[in-house]
Every structure is written in C-alpha cells, then in structure tokens.
C-alpha cells in the first residue's frame, strides 16, 4: 500500500495551502500540463472531456433559444479594433500582435482576438439591412488570447477556450431581454449541471465590460472563500451599432440602429468545479458533468468469474445510459481507489469473489465516501439513483458552504475586519460612487462582485462613506 | 414569379464558368462571407452547421478507435518549430508571426500554429517514459493559419478549421497500422456520409508532408474534373522522436524511440461537397450530412387547415428522427422552392388544400427533381426511404462521374493531350523519379495525386521518360 499512499500524499492539503492544493489537483488529476509557451497550457484528455460535456450541454440549451453557431477569423485588424473607443482602451494593453505573414511584414498589424465584438459588428453591418434580418443570434466556440502577466491553470491563461454569443435586435427591450435570458441560462446550467450555486446580479460601472452599457454576472464562491466571476452577459445598447454603422429600416421605412448583446462562458468553469467540490483526495466531479460517472474496480480480478462479472455489469450500466469504465489494469485495488478519488469519478463499484457469491457489489460515493451494498440485479437502477442523489446533495452542500461564508457588514470597520478575517462574500450597502469602490480596493483588496437582483435593505447608509445608500452589493476578493 | 427567377438567375452556370459558379453558390447558399481580414472568411450558420455534422460524425468514429481529444496552445515558439529540419523548411515561409504581447516586444517570436506536430512532440517528450505510457492517441479540433497568397472559400484560406490527430507508438508496425486505419476511416466517412468516392493511395516523395516518412491520401474528383486532396494520414517513423528526444523504456528496460503518426481533415470538405454534388440551382447536400434534411412548404398557407397540417407533419417527421423545418414565411412558394434548391436541402414536401383533401403530399428530391406523391399516413417512413435512396444514388452518381473522367495514357503525347483536353484523373505508369514529376508539372501543370493501393500494370514503361516503370500513378490538376 506504500505506493497508494504516495499517490495521495503528493497533494498538499487545502487547509495548509489552497493555491498549492489547486495546482496539485490540476496536475495529479491530469487535467492540464504546462508547455514551452509561457502562460499557455495543454488541456489533457481528462480536462478536455469535461469541457466537451460543458460544450455539449450549453450548446443544446443555446440552440433551444434559437442560437446559431458561426466561425469568425481569429485576427482583428488594428483599425477595426479601434472603432469603439472604450472597447479598444479596455483590450489593447493585453493583446498579442501579429506583424509578419510568412517572410513579409504586414501593412497593418493584426491582433489575435481577445474577444470578437468588433468582428461581429463588422459582419452585422454587412448582413443587416431590414427589420426582416433581425434578430441575429450568433455564437462561436473558439479560443481567445489575452496577454496576462500572471497566469493560473484554467483561471487565467494567455489563451483559453470559450463561447461568445453576439446578438443584434430591433429594440432596446429585446436586447435587454436576451441579455437576461442568457444570464439565467448560465445560472441554471451552473446549478443544474455543475452543482455550483450562483448569485445573479449587475456589475458596477467600474467593473463592467469595455464598451457595454450594462454587464450582468453570475458570481460563485470557491471553497477558500474567494469569489469567481462565472459567466457574464452584456447589453451594449446601440453604442457599437453607432460606431460600426449597423442600421436597419424598420416597418415604417425609417433607419434605426440595432441594439446588441454579448455573453460568454469559459474553461475557467473547470477551475470552479475543482475549487467548489474538490477535497484533500483530489477532484470531485458532479455526476452530470463527469466524463466517467462510475468505475468498476474488480477485486481479486484473477479469480474465476470476477472479470466476466465486471464486464457484464459494465454492459448493463452502459445500456442504462451511465458513463462507466472498468479498471482491469494490473495495479492494486488500493491504487485504483486512490486514482478514482484523485480523478473525481463520482462512484466506484467494488466487486470481488465474495460479492459475486452474495450477488452484490459495493458502491462507494466519491463525495461522502458512503459505502452502499447493492444487489447485482438492481445495480443500474441503484447507481443512477445514487448519482442523482449525489448531484443534488453536492449543490446543497455548496450552497450551505456559500451561505455560511456570506456575511453582513453595516459599518466600515467591521466590513474591513470581515473581509480580512473571514474569507467569503460580504453584503453591504453602497452609495453608488466609484470613489468608495476604489477605497475598498485599496484598503482590503476587495471588489464589488455584483449588485444582486435580490436586493435587501441592510441599512440606509453606504458602508464606506456613510452617505445615503442606493444598492446592496456583494463584496469579496476574487480570482 | 419574377423574383423567384432572379434568385436563381444570379448564379453563373457551371458550364460557363465553374470558378464563378462555385463562388456564387458559396455566397447565395449563405455558407460563407468575406471579412475585413484579407484571406480569412466567416463561416455562416448554414456552413457551420455542415461542419458541426462533419465533426460529430468524425469524432464518434475517432472515439470508437480509442482517440482522446485534447487542446494545445495556438502559439509555437520559433525555437520549437525549428527542431525538425524538414518540417520547419516546409512551414516557415507560410506562418504568421506574433512579435508583441500587449505593449512589449516578445523575447522570442511565436508563430500561430500551421499544424501542431512540434507541440505534440514537446508534450509527448514529457509524458512518455515507459512502454506503459503507450500508445498515445490524441486529437484536437482547432483552427490553423497558413499565410497563403491566393485564397478561395473553404479550399484555401489563411485560417481554416480542422482536426489533427497525433499518435505515438512503441513499434513501427503499430504506427503504420494506425496510419492506414485512419486513412480507411476518412475514406469510409467520405463515401458513407459525404457520398464522395475516393482513391486511397500513397503520396510520392515530392508530394509528402514536411517531416513525414510516408504520407497517405484520399483523392476525390470534383465536377469540373479537378482533383481534391481530401484527407491525409502521415507515418513519421521515428524522425520527430529523434529530433525531440521522445523515448520510452521497453519491457526489457531498454531505451527506445517512439514511432509517430498524424492525420487531418479540414473545412475544405465543405468545398468538396459543393463541387461534387452541386448543380446550376445551387447546393445539393447528401441527406446524412445535411443540417436540414426536409423542408415542408405549405401551399396556399392562409387556407384553413394548411398550416395546422404542416405542423402535424413536421412533428411526425421529427419524431421519426428526420431533421425537418417548415417554411411558413410570407414568401411565395416559388421563392421558397428556389431557396430550398439553392441551400441544397435534400427534399421538400409540398402540401396544399388539395393535397390535404386527398390525404397526400408531394415530395420533391433535390438531386433528381423527381416528384413523389406520398400518402400522409406513411410520410415519415417514405421520406426516410427517399433520403436513403438519395444518399446511395448520390454516391453512385459521383462514382460514375469520376470513372467516366478517369483516363489511361501509355505514351507521353497522349498523356499531355488528355490532361490538357479532358479534365479528370489520368492513370499512367511512372519510373519513380522526381525529374519526371517535375517535367509533368512544367509541361501540363499536373501533379502525381497518389500511388493508389489498387495497382494496375498498364505498361512496362514510365509514361514520361520511357524507363522501366515502378508504379501506376493517378495524375491530375488539383485544387
């Protein structure tokens, strides 16, 4: 068993050093590897399979709302990037520039897309003429590049994978409706599939997207009490439309500007899965997103009938729609258990000669480690029930953790003390001015995560300056 | 009907100008649009949906053979690209270079991947240590960039979408087996799904991939008699392994180099679909790849019961697994017919008041324009039969076209005359030397498309130089 212990031992405990624990899990669960390209990562099979499941589930939900997928170039000419003033100011400092094509210098620099608003606007300005051409509800799955100085696997890297939806509508109301619709879609996806509870709300002016009229966000809380922006949906109003001249003739034959939105979710959600659900044995994947939901581990597999039984059980579970594998390698059972735990496979099914004699198997839940003895006859049904229960309880547990780490502050001293000493969200009132946000940032390195849709009246005064309060805000330190 | 005619009239006929016909179809079927970025295209919803179906079908077939998907960075440091000599010589002249990250010049230039052999090798050199780590069978779906001087939608653009598989094996035999396995997979996919018949064979030394020991290819013939390389599978031997130091310890504890392969298929297959199956009314999509397989067009749709019937039929067909839409817009039926034809939707289902009275609908095949009256009771079953027949006949027709445009030449004069006057493949014997290939290229601008697996002995002499022949080769002009 020495080898098994070593396998687990190599992870730092999360209580000791959360950042190191995270890096250890990412590496040991074989989600990611570093590369020769500074700040860029390889997403390995175990990591990419999670992303494929995220894509599949999001894409299905998108298409139900009328989204059409497209692909736009990865390059943006410098002049195009500069068309919307706030947008270029927000992104220019962190883009990668292509200056040579083959052996020739380019006449105009091209940036590698950090996001594609400008290209979609360029397309829409050519495609949209009449109210009959509206709405346009396009999305693309691609990678984007932002030249970050410090990087962390999944959370912040120079290249990452995402989807970016870009829409154009006849009216401001329709654009706002689509913005909120997609925010709700993201929130439902996070809670139902990733078992990650989120706070829905609006970003402050300081925190909103470069070029947007309003940015909406879903914010989640990691196990260490830091916040993670998990998906954003932007209402652009007609700002980009005016900069790019995207106009249509309405039913009265008058020229109007379109109203636009954009919304995105990225591979950082894999980081969120790790930091919300993981433990000191490694990853814990919610069943609905897990590429492998159950692994069958034969015990004393050389004894007659053991591997044959494992094979039969695998076939039964597959037939029932469960994503299952059998680990029949020559590693010891203990080693296989440790591996299953490290990789976060939701349940393992142990089955040896004694179990077979008793026509049963032992199902072990990854999250609670509960051992459940199940009759082989009803294995598929029971495993599905256990997976469903686990999915539900993981969300409940994450919600309980978040609620237990959400505090209220009504004066600035206790606000600062809470931020400094109790990692989590702090709910507090705000006057609405930028200066108070800047002060909080400077004093305790926290930001306004969002102005939640569900407002509470905690006091009449801004927690920072004491002036009349306008909104309740979730504050916190964030990834 | 004036408007309907105009819609169709805007396409140049393929007999008049095939290149212009192709561009017209690409634009009018709304597959692609040009962008502000020279040589880069937008793949629009109708085009991207075809690519999604290609991806879905190929990915399923890959995974059945044990392929695992990953994602590697889009950037390659210049020093890494230079590690394999032939490879860098082949690609350096046509790569895009990133020289700035944000406001700072980079210490080392990064090229935007034209292909990812070097990155996969870099990864494998870190991941592979023991024979237990083999084989590695990775694939990625991504875009790549090649700085082409002249571009054409789908066929040749500065950025295109593809998949690139990269594998590492313990032995040369295993690598060769995987190379051929993937070539066969591509060939089956082309014939079964795209209804495009292919010639399987080996590339000559002159035409093989930069850095490969052997390149295998599937070659297809377009309607205008030009060849299209439709998928390639490369056996690298241990050349990259030696350049990148990818070694493993075998069962006898000896250090060995791995043997590698790579294989790819791209969005140019959408171009192939257009050029193999299209006609003067537009695109014709084989049912198995068509995003929409059937469109219901209600006739006199304002009359009572027409739209209700259309709705019911749509639900029935959907239930039967047919990808179906109803066009209930206020355009005229004639306009809708022309649109369905332009977009290549395999069948349209016409249904008006008289049809409903007779409990029937008229199904019109896109390829033959055959009109089939079908009882509403059995619509779903009959439409599926018609789609299956159409899929089969499209492949047969493409094969007959190719065979009718495949010629034999046994002397150089008739060889040149055939190439110049009869667009298609020319089968002819070859001595195996580079000089003869160069002479053919110079004299008639044709290339050795492949040395087919199915060899024939047409004569004893090389068609070019008259020296003893070694192989039969398919020659042709190519896209």
UniProtKB/TrEMBL annotation, chains A, B:
Its main location: cytoplasm. PROSITE patterns: AA_TRNA_LIGASE_II. Its EC number is 6.1.1.15. GO terms for cellular component: aminoacyl-tRNA synthetase multienzyme complex; cytoplasm. GO terms for molecular function: ATP binding; catalytic activity, acting on a protein; proline-tRNA ligase activity; transferase activity. NCBIfam families: proS_fam_I. Catalyzes the attachment of proline to tRNA(Pro) in a two-step reaction: proline is first activated by ATP to form Pro-AMP and then transferred to the acceptor end of tRNA(Pro). This is Proline--tRNA ligase. It comes from Candidatus Blautia avicola.
């Amino acid at each position: 068993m020495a080898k098994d212990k070593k396998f687990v031992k190599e992870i730092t405990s999360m209580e000791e050093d959360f950042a190191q624990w995270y890096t250890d899990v990412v590496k040991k669960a074989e989600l990611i590897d570093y590369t020769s390209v500074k700040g860029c990562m390889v997403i390995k099979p175990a990591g990419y399979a999670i992303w494929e499941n995220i894509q599949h589930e999001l894409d299905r939900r998108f298409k139900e709302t009328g989204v059409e997928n497209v692909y736009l170039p990865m390059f943006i000419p410098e002049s195009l990037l500069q068309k919307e003033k706030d947008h270029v100011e927000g992104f220019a400092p962190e883009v990668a520039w292509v200056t040579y094509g083959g052996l020739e210098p380019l006449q105009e620099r091209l940036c590698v897309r950090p996001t594609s608003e400008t290209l979609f606007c360029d397309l829409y300005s050519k495609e949209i003429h009449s109210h009959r051409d509206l709405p346009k509800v396009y999305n693309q799955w691609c990678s984007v590049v932002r030249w970050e100085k410090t990087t962390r696997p999944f959370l912040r890297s120079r290249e990452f994978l995402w989807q970016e939806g870009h829409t154009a509508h006849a009216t401001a109301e329709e654009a706002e409706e689509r913005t909120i619709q997609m925010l709700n879609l993201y929130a439902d996806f996070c809670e139902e599939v990733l078992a990650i509870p989120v706070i829905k709300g609006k970003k402050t002016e300081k925190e909103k997207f470069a070029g947007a009229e309003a940015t909406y966000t879903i914010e989640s809380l990691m196990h260490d009490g830091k916040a993670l922006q998990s998906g954003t949906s932007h209402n652009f109003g007609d700002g980009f439309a005016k900069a790019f001249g995207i106009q249509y003739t309405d039913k009265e034959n008058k020229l109007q500007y379109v109203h636009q939105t954009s919304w995105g979710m990225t591979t950082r959600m894999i980081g969120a899965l790790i930091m919300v659900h993981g433990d000191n044995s490694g990853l814990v994947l919610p069943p609905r997103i897990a590429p492998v939901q159950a692994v069958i581990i034969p015990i004393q597999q050389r004894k007659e009938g053991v591997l044959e039984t494992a094979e039969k059980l695998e076939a039964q579970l597959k037939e029932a729609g469960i994503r299952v594998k059998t680990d029949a390698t020559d590693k010891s059972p203990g080693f296989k258990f440790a591996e299953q735990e490290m990789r976060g496979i939701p349940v393992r099914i142990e089955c040896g000669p004694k179990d077979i004699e008793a026509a049963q198997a032992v199902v072990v839940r990854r999250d609670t480690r509960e051992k459940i003895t199940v009759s082989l006859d009803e294995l598929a049904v029971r495993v599905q029930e256990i997976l469903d229960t686990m999915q539900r309880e993981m969300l409940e547990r994450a919600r309980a953790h978040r609620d237990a780490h959400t505090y209220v502050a009504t004066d600035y001293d206790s606000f600062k003390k809470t931020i400094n000493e109790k990692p989590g969200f702090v709910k507090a009132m705000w006057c609405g001015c930028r200066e108070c946000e800047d002060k909080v940032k400077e004093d305790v390195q926290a930001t306004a995560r969002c102005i939640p849709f569900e407002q509470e009246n905690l006091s009449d005064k801004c927690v920072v300056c004491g002036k009349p309060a306008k909104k309740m805000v979730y504050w916190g330190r964030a990834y």
